[in-house]
Amino acid sequence: MKKKLKLLPFLFFILFFTSCDPAQELRFVNKTNSDATVRILLKPNAKNFRLEEAADKGSIVFNLKKDSTAYIYYGIGVWSGKDIFDFSNSAKYIEIDTKDIKTVYKSEKAMQDILSDNVKGILVKNLIEIDIK
Question: Structure pTM?
């Protein structure tokens, strides 16, 4: 009986963390000393509900003040290779513009790389955080 009671917290822990799906999030963090702008232009034929929902006239624009953060909610679950592929396949480009540097990720490969390289999480990889420096 004591062994079963000791096993109960472990089982609860396993069930708790496997039963809930986290929210997928794409986060841009402005770590510069000035304002920054992030633009994501969607392809005209993009069929991505989450991006279309966040877009205004086919683009998503964040004007970030110093030390501020912007988010895109991308659904439930973790960031898989397919999700990153779908995102980059729906966007024409991702542009990050600071006072000193403008970086444009134009190709699907470049967008996949920047997203994949910034996936965060130990057990649950539900966050992509891109630091703007």
Answer: 0.83
